[in-house]
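// run 5 | inverse folding | seed 20
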């Protein structure tokens, strides 16, 4: 227990030999040190998770997470230890304000990766939707690039089929007229196979021959157009990039932003989590700021005052010695 307390006093940046002369302050500074330590620990965990999403390597996660945690720990320790208690609250507040702003920025940075972990299931579902949207956008862009050529080939095929259908309709009409002339249901209304029938039958046969020629010629062109259409379709499919999985830090932040913009409960939960870390990060500064001036602060000020007096005395002595030395140099030998 004593070792743990000594460690927390170290975390608070307190001068332990001087603090032993004011034992009533020990618990306060141990509490401040514990807050600083756990803030650094949360920073290490947060940075480790963030780096895991980037590198997906255990050694990088542990190494950079440890470095980040130690950096935040050292920064918090410096912020708290550099604050001096005076008898003027507003003067102390002005001194603490830049430290509070810095603590606020650190809290926001620390909280964001942990928010990503807390809302991980919701973010994963949103990432799937984002992947589908990105793939659909890429697919549409590729289709727009090839759509003009595809429409042109389809229109050519449709025109050729229409020509075949038109000629087939003409052949059927002429064949029907010849049949009606033969059975007396149309034309001259006389049932016979005379010259009128033979003329109409010849027209129908000619139309049938033309249909065969048009069908053969157009079908060849249709086959060529269909081959070109298949080639364009294959090129279009090859141009569509493979569906990539969104799993990076930026994608997760984007997904969290979409969730908070769409869902009020998630937005409020996101704010509460961030405010919680802000409170944790700012707690040591606030404790140091609102706590009353204690014996340790008096001892510290007395020590600083004694050191300042000693420094001034030393400087005055050096100036006096320098002045004596200069006077000796000015004295000329008789």
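// decoded
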């Amino acid at each position: 227990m004593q070792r743990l307390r000594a460690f927390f006093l170290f975390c608070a940046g307190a001068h332990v030999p001087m603090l032993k002369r004011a034992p009533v302050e020990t618990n306060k500074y141990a509490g401040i040190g514990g807050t600083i330590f756990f803030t650094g620990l949360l920073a290490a965990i947060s940075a480790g998770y963030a780096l895991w999403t980037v590198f997906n390597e255990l050694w990088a996660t542990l190494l950079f997470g440890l470095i980040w945690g130690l950096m935040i720990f050292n920064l918090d320790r410096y912020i708290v230890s550099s604050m001096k208690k005076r008898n003027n609250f507003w003067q102390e507040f002005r001194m603490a304000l830049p430290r509070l702003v810095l603590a606020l920025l650190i809290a926001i940075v620390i909280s964001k990766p942990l928010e990503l972990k807390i809302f991980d299931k919701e973010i994963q579902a949103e990432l799937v939707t984002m992947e589908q949207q990105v793939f659909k956008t890429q697919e549409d862009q590729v289709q727009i690039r090839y759509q003009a050529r595809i429409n042109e080939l389809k229109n050519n095929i449709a025109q050729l089929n229409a020509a075949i259908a038109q000629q087939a309709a003409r052949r059927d009409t002429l064949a029907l007229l010849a049949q009606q002339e033969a059975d007396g249901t149309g034309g001259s209304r006389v049932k016979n196979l005379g010259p009128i029938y033979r003329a109409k039958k010849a027209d129908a046969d000619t139309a049938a021959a033309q249909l065969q020629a048009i069908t053969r010629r157009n079908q060849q062109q249709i086959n060529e157009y269909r081959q070109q259409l298949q080639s364009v379709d294959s090129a279009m499919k090859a141009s569509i990039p493979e569906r990539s999985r969104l799993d990076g830090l930026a994608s997760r932040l984007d997904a969290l932003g979409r969730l908070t913009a769409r869902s009020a409960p998630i937005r409020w939960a996101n704010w509460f989590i961030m405010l919680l870390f802000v409170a944790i990060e700012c707690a040591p500064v606030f404790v140091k700021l609102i706590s009353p001036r204690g014996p340790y602060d008096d001892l510290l000020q007395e020590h600083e005052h004694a050191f300042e007096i000693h420094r001034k005395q030393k400087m005055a002595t050096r100036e006096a010695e320098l002045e004596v030395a200069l006077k000796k140099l000015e004295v000329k030998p008789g």
